[in-house]
Design a protein that fits this description.
alpha/beta; TIM Barrel; 8-stranded parallel beta barrel; 8-stranded parallel β-barrel; globular
Length: 643
């Protein structure tokens, strides 16, 4: 079954969570179906879902007999321990010949190349593809289709598709996330359950109170977005040149999915047959009456603002067939001296006895000139100038960079790039890095695959940022081959996964060991709540100034910082602190320890840097009873505390 409009193929892509659902959905008015197998996909939370090996083979036979395609999701990050399983699974898939795999982890691309497989590859929405350079880089690695970032508007998609020639896939209906794809680490830090490994505990669906400027604002579910609904905008989707219209719903029931797919399929056919006389609203009422949440067109036509936030059924569990509440605010595991000693002992087992130990260096990321000068005065090894500067500070100017370059001494100075880079951002940084005079910096802190491709030949060495979320040595090797001089350890690694990764990696590793790294990175502007709503109470923030917006539950307060691009960074209520374990981490292979210093005053940052420098020299106590006191609600070991 193939659809065309003005000679261009249009595909309606439907989900299936089980084999029974697949057998019904594949008979509906779709062109292709996607589902997950028993391992390595993003829907691993619900027992009985996903297909077995035998069911996959049978599903392919059924679909191909109907002239339809099948795409299989191999779209989570996998650990070092799962590499063997990944090899076996990919070999099986190569034998049964799906029409493509949907992939997040760069390691899958490396395995396919290494094993000589010929499986077509589609880049998952979890790759968060958002610029031309990312598309070109993925094309160079063998990817034939890209699922665009959820935050991409149709005009941008049209531009990127036309200029790249790449097939684009776009979500048109279903459950959306308020956080950029693969940029949510909240679930892994609190539960040890990674949202990028198919085990998200949905903290975006929790009930929060918003505080700012000493007031409380009435935003019960400020991160809970509505379901995507593009049924009435199929003409605009087709005009954008998008190849595949993707429906979300691998956790939805059979009757609902069949109804939904048939409505979209029938509408596409009506538009192809008679675009002038097309009625956009034929099944609108049916879909609205059967909605699970309220509807939105999300970012398809620009930033949706607060109208994208859902209130229907939030907190009731009515989205799920079990009828249970799936996610509620949960306290973090308590940090204790005993737990630190356990982790130190386990890490000590991973020391590299046959390799020369590298003396560790300290890196600090800063948000403003005062912090930068404090770090330089402390003679840190590496200084990163953030590319996402939290308000009210402003981005580092060329004059700032020149000034810091003149006084940096032995410290290596790096210019950080924004985590999300549009074509405008590349134009701006090209002028600075390629066409302008040589800057007095020692390299770039790169945040996305597109930036790596663009600036690999700029003459500036590249260090990988933690946002690359490198979870195994295969991905680390691929990134090193693309030009990274130092590999960041994934902020989501549990103890066991880190131990296996570090023990098998021969590359220089960097790890965030202290501070307030962003756990959620989003286009959604939470500050709008405090700008358009009337307060309902008064209450000061406990740990940050009242000018900082806070998301609050009865378990704690999460500060939210807005950067110069208007994007929000939600940080944890506690500070990451690996001070007691530096020696063991270094022995395991970490050569650079990073402090995320953007949220500290210069005085606080100096104290933290001093404590780490003393610990690295072995001249200070490194236990929980250290004299260094937390600035915020306490200390946490993040994902590393989980086995």
């Amino acid at each position: 079954m193939t659809r065309y409009f003005n000679g261009k193929e249009i595909e309606l892509l439907a989900p299936a969570g089980t084999f029974e659902i697949f057998k019904e959905v594949v008979q509906s008015r779709c062109d292709a179906v996607y589902f997950g197998g028993p391992v390595l996909n993003m829907r691993m939370m619900r027992k009985g879902y996903n297909l077995s090996h035998e069911e996959i083979a049978e599903a392919l036979s059924i679909a191909h007999g109907l002239g339809k395609k099948v795409y299989i999701t191999v779209n989570n990050l996998f650990s070092e321990q799962e590499t063997g399983e990944a090899r076996e699974y990919l070999a099986f898939l190569d034998g049964v010949r799906p029409d493509a795999l949907i992939v997040q982890d760069m390691a899958v691309l490396e395995l396919i190349r290494e094993m000589g497989l010929t499986l077509p590859i589609h880049a998952s929405v979890m790759m968060n593809v958002h610029n031309l350079e990312m598309i070109y880089a993925l094309r160079d690695l063998g990817v034939s289709r890209v699922v665009t970032s959820r935050e991409m508007d149709l005009q941008t998609a049209k531009l990127l598709g036309a200029r790249s020639g790449m097939e684009l896939e776009y979500f048109v209906h279903g459950d959306m996330c308020s956080v950029h794809g693969a940029n949510c680490y909240y679930s892994s830090h609190v539960f040890g359950m990674s949202s990028n490994r198919g085990k998200c505990m949905k903290p975006c669906r929790w009930n929060y109170r918003i505080k700012k400027d000493g007031y409380i604002f009435p935003a019960d579910y400020p991160l809970a977005v509505k379901d995507m609904f593009m049924y009435e905008n199929l003409p605009e989707l087709i005009d954008s040149g998008i190849t595949s219209f993707k429906i979300e719903g691998r956790m939805r029931d059979k009757d609902f999915m069949v109804m939904l797919v048939n409505s979209y399929g029938e509408a596409i056919d009506r538009y192809i047959e008679d675009p002038i006389g097309f009625d956009r609203t034929v099944d609108s009422k049916l879909l609205y009456q059967n909605r699970k949440r309220d509807f939105s067109t999300a970012y398809a036509f620009g930033k949706p603002g607060l109208r994208n936030i859902n209130r229907r059924y939030e907190g009731t569990g009515k989205f799920y067939s079990t009828g249970k509440v799936f996610s509620t605010p949960t306290a973090e595991r308590e940090l204790s001296e005993d737990r630190v000693l356990q982790l130190k002992g386990r890490l000590a087992q991973e020391a590299r006895p046959n390799q020369a130990r590298v003396s560790p260096e300290l890196a600090v990321r800063v948000n403003n000139m005062a912090q930068a000068k404090a770090a330089l005065e402390a003679k840190v090894g590496h200084l990163y100038l953030s590319g996402d500067v939290y308000e009210p500070d402003r981005p580092f100017t060329k004059r700032d960079i020149m000034e810091l370059g003149a006084i940096k001494g032995e410290t290596k100075l790096y210019l950080g790039l924004p985590r999300m880079m549009t074509e405008l951002h590349f134009d701006q940084y090209d002028q600075l890095l390629i066409h302008g005079e040589r800057l007095p910096i020692d390299g770039l802190l790169v945040t996305n695959l597109g930036a790596i491709r663009r600036y690999n030949t700029s003459g500036y060495p590249m260090i990988g940022d933690a946002s690359l979320n490198i979870y195994n040595t295969l991905a680390a090797g691929l990134y090193a081959g693309l030009g990274l001089k130092r590999i960041p350890v994934s902020p989501e690694m549990t103890l066991e996964h880190f131990a296996a990764f570090a023990s098998r990696s021969s590359l220089p590793l960097e790890m965030v060991v202290h501070g307030t790294p962003a756990l959620m990175y989003m286009e959604h502007d939470l500050y709008e709540n405090a700008e358009v709503m009337e307060p309902i109470g008064e209450e000061d923030n406990r740990y940050v100034g009242n000018d900082v917006l806070v998301l609050m539950t009865d378990k704690g307060e999460n500060p939210v910082y807005r950067d110069q691009h208007g994007r929000c960074h939600l940080v944890f209520s506690k500070e990451l602190c690996y001070l007691p374990m530096l020696d063991e981490l270094n022995a395991a292979g970490v050569s650079t320890f990073r402090i995320e210093g953007s949220t500290y005053t210069p005085e606080q940052l100096r104290e933290i840097i001093t404590a780490y420098q003393q610990a690295m020299r072995g001249t200070s106590q490194q236990g929980l009873t250290s004299s260094m006191q937390p600035v915020y609600a306490g200390y946490t070991l993040g994902s590393l505390q989980f086995d």
